[in-house]
Amino acid sequence: MDQMKNLIELFYDKVLKKGDAPFLWSKKGSTWQSVTWEEAAKRVASLADKLKTLGVKPGDRVGLVSESRPEWPIADLAIMAVGGITVPAYVTNSISDHKYILEDSQAIGVIVSSTNIAKNVLPAAEKVASLKFAISFDPKLEVQTDRISLHSLDTIVNSCTDTAAILDNAIESISRDETACLIYTSGTGGTPKGVMLSHGAILCNCIGSIDLLQEMGLGDEVFLSFLPLSHSYEHTAGQFFPIMIGAQIYYAEGIDKLAQNMEEVHPTLMTAVPRLYEVMHDRIRKGVKQAGGISEKLFNKTIQLGRKKYEKPASMSLSENLQNVVLDKLVRSKVKGRFGGQLKALVSGGAPLNYDIGIFFTALGIKLLQGYGQTESAPVISCNPPSDNRIDTVGKPMKGVDCQIANDGEIIVKGELVMQGYWNNLEATGEAIKDGWLHTGDIGEFDGDGYLKITDRKKDIIVNSGGDNISPQRIEGMLTTQPEIGQAMVYGDRRPHLTALIIPDAEYAAAWAKENGHSKTNLEFVVEQPDFKKVMVKAVDRVSNNLSGIEKVRRFTLSHEAFTIDNEMLTPTLKIRRHIIREKFFEKLEALYGSQT
Could you tell me whether strands 269-272 and 345-348 are parallel, antiparallel, or unpaired per DSSP bridges? Predict the structure, then answer.
């Protein structure tokens, strides 16, 4: 695998070995249906052939906007098979988001899934001068185009007459250091930057993953893919890694049916962000609470003893060890059954995992391995090994990764996994990569056994519990452009959505009070008025209407004065960054207003 030239060779090597074995699964109605390895190869070759006729040349960019489904990897591989560069985008993007990405990447075409997705993509595509065509997965697209040509995948997928010739040619013509994909990620100023990842970078990540997980015995693995494939984490760990080991990939129907899907497909491996594990934790806890009685008592005892066995195994008494063995059969076996009964490990990445969430699953006998990385590293830098999982760390650096701590504490990385740079942005590339070292912007330290701990973050970026990078300054700036708002601070690190502290503009508030017949016009009085709160809701909504789903402020608290941080917290020697000040800010708010803040 170290000698593979590109991702097409990785794919076709497995096609030749797996043949008519099932590969990609999706649910049609109430039935799971598969695409075999050979069928997938034919579809990849057919679409690649069509892309050539549409004018796609080596190095050209092609957008890809779709939910996770079998057509996604087929389209991704087809773009790469002609030497093109895949440009994935989230299905939740607005028209302006899509326009920016397609225009900045100078995409020649775009592939979309359905009418619902095309409603935002095609109007954007029409405005991009470089873009010439669009291909849809669904045959009946209810969105018209005027300037660009529109094609349907169902007229393309079986048109190839010589799959081997097309894929063999791709293998020979594409080198390992050529760009495979261009994945846009948020920058500190809020403007997305296109991360250029080579075929070799993704291959390096996959090889490192095999080295990490082979101690569990990698055989006929089954992946349940839940995260969007436009996320670099799922693109590598949920698509190309399963391809490398010849695994089957099932595409989950959605979070509301995830538990059902697990019991149906019996996954052996699954990758997700902490937010999913938080949701699972809450649902399990809720179900146990509703059951009550002896079931609840046994469950709580399982968590208690499981935690103790992980944290202080030497302190377990003979009686507790015996009880723990009994609970394996009474509780843990049932929990494992709810996860499909075959699960070897869950892998968490994309955002920091809450220690208590990790302990919860560990106590229930479910291996939850936390890793660390970023889009710029394809994306995995480190991960915990199954045999010695340390929940409070992000594990050891992967094979092929040179990871060090710089003099200022920043985590820096070198190796084939490092991006080629930011698309058309030499300045940002120069700031991120210095002398071949990727500067992650995170502060960390190694313990005595070489496990990496993330202790801080230099860059002022919010990473929510879904693993999305969000620029708080951009949102705060938009909020304070509203006449009603004087100051704003946005928070949401490790949380499912954004909240904000808003201090109204004093002059606006005083004018509002006079107009509404109040004798008091001071800010402290005005922020307590229900009708004024409604005014502020409208102001926040105006801003949210121009933001993507993950950037929207879901809740906010009004204050009449800014809170100050204790002077000692601001001394330069402590190197306090803005996000830590934001954390302290909200701790103080919570103390004043309660946990609902």
Answer: parallel
Decide: helix, strand or coil at residue 185.
Answer: strand
| Run of H or E residues at 263 | helix 258-265
| Res 87 pLDDT > 90 | yes
CA atoms within 13 A on the CB side of 462: 30
**Hey, what's the torsion of the CAs at 441, 446, 452, 455, to 10 degrees?**
-50
* Total-model pTM: 0.82
pLDDT at 159: 80
Hey, what domains does the chain have and what are their CATH numbers? 1-14+33-175 (3.40.50.12780), 471-593 (3.30.300.30)
Please give the single-letter amino acid code of residue 44. Answer: V
CA pair distance 18, 45, nearest whole angstrom:
17
Whether the per-residue pLDDT at 575 is higher than 90: the answer is no
61-65/85-88 β-pairing: parallel
pLDDT, tens digit, for every residue of 195-249? 999 999 999 999 999 999 999 999 999 999 999 999 999 999 999 999 999 999 9
Reported in sequence order, the residue ranges of 52-204 that DSSP labels E, i.e. its strands, are: 61-65, 85-88, 109-112, 133-136, 149-152, 179-185, 193-198
* CB burial of residue 161 (10 Å; 0-12, 13-18, 19+): exposed
